[in-house]
Amino acid sequence: xxxxxxxxxxxxxxxxxxxxxRQIITIQDGVITSVRPDxxxxxxxxxxxxxxxxxxxxxxxxxxxxxxxxxYEPALLPWLNKHVFPEExxxxxxxxxxxLAQLFFNALCxxxxxxxxxxxxxxxxxxxxxxxxxxAMGIRxxxxxxxxxxxxxxxxxxxxxxxxQQSIELYNRWHSKNPMLDYIFTPRFAPTxxxxxxxxxxxxxxxxxxxxxxxxxENTDELSWVKELFGLSSYTEVYHKAGLLRPKSIxxxxxxxxxxxxxxxxxxxxxxxxxxxxNFYLKSGEYPLQLIMDAGIxxxxxxxxxxxxxxxxxxxxxxxxxxxxxxxxxxxxxxxxITLGSAKLLGMDDKIGSITRGKEADIxxxxxxxxxxxxxxxxxxxxxxxxxxxxMETMVAGKSLYIA
Length: 404
Ligand code: GUN
Ligand code: ZN
Description:
Elements: E1 2-13, E2 16-28, E3 31-37, E4 45-54, E5 56-62, H1 76-90, H2 94-110, E6 113-120, H3 124-137, E7 141-147, H4 160-174, E8 181-187, H5 195-208, E9 211-216, H6 220-230, H7 235-242, E10 249-253, H8 259-267, E11 271-274, H9 276-281, H10 289-295, E12 299-301, H11 313-322, H12 331-336, H13 340-345, E13 363-367, H14 378-385, E14 390-396, E15 399-403
Parallel strand pairs: 1-4, 5-6, 6-7, 7-8, 8-9, 9-10, 10-11, 11-12
Antiparallel strand pairs: 1-2, 2-3, 4-13, 13-14, 14-15
This protein binds guanine (GUN) and zinc ion.
Residues 60, 62, 215, 252, 304 line the site of zinc ion.
C-alpha cells in the first residue's frame, strides 16, 4: 500500500478540471482506494511539492518510427518514401525491433504516458517483440502490426492473406492474455491496402468486436491518389465501402473532410486521433476542430511520432491550441483530450483517465520548474510549457515504471 501526499489536477469534462491541493492518494493492489484531503495524521510519502495528473494517453504513435523523428521532408508521401519506409524496414531484424521496443516504452514512461495506441513495423516479429516487452514491463497499450499489401516498397510489401493471417494470429495470442494489452488491427492507409484486405479486416474486427486503426485524409496529394486508386466520392467513402467505419475504429488526422464525410464518421461513431504537431510538421493542414466538434465526432490527441516531434503529450496539448489559426483551445479542453476524453473514447474510463477512487492507479507526478509554485494556475502552465515540468514518477496500475 502507498499513501502519497500531493496536489491533484483532475479532468472532469471537456470544459472542467479540478485542482485539489494537498491530497492523500491511497493505492492498494494497483487500484486507487481513496483520494482525500490531508488530515495531518496519516503517514505519507511526501510529494507535496509535486502535481499528480492521470497518466497521459497517446491515441496515435508509431513505435517503428521512434528513431527517425526530425528527419525532414515537408510532405507526407515523399517523407514516407525517403525516411519512414527505410527506417521501418530495419525492424525486419528481430534484435533491432526488440531493442527499439524497449527504448520506446522507456521513453513513453519518462514523459508520463501510461496508455498508447501503437503502430509497429509491418513484420510479425516486430509486433510480437513489442507485445513481449510491454507485457514484461507492465505497459498498458493497444498494439498492432502495420498492414500494407500494395503500392509499397518490396521490403515492406505483404501478401494479402499473410498479412491478414499474421494479424489474426497476433490478435489471438494477445487479445486476452494480459488485461493491460490488446491487439489493434492496423491497415496503414487506403493507398497501401487493397479493398480486399480492408474488407477482411473489417469482417474479422466486427465478428470479434476488435479495434482497428488507420490514417484518413491527411494530405491533399494523398487524397488525389486515393481518388485515382478507388474512384469513390471521398476518402471516407473508401473506408465506408470497406466496412471500416465503426465505433472501434480510430482514424488519424482527418483534416480535409467534406460535410458528407463528417456525417458518415458521426453516423458510425468512428473516432479520430488528432495529431496537431504532425499536421504542421508535414504541412498537411489544419484540423477542422470546430467542424469536428459541431459534428459531435469524438477525438483524442496523438503524438504521431515520428511525424510528431515529441512523445510528450504536454507538448501536444500546446500544439492543440497553437495549430488552430483562430479557435482558442482552453487548458481544460486540451487536458481532457490526453486523459479522460481519450479514456472514454476507448471505453476505458472505468479504469483510467482520472485520479478517482476505484480506478487503476495510472498516475504521473510532476515538479514545476524552479521558482514556480503549485496552484490553480498550474494546469494552464502545464498545457503551455509542460515539457519544462519534470516527470518525477510514472506509474501504471500502481506499478512504478519510471522514477527520475
Ligand atoms: N499515412 C500512412 N502512413 C503514415 C505514417 O506512417 N505517418 C503519417 N503521419 N501518415 C501516414
Ligand atoms: Zn500516423
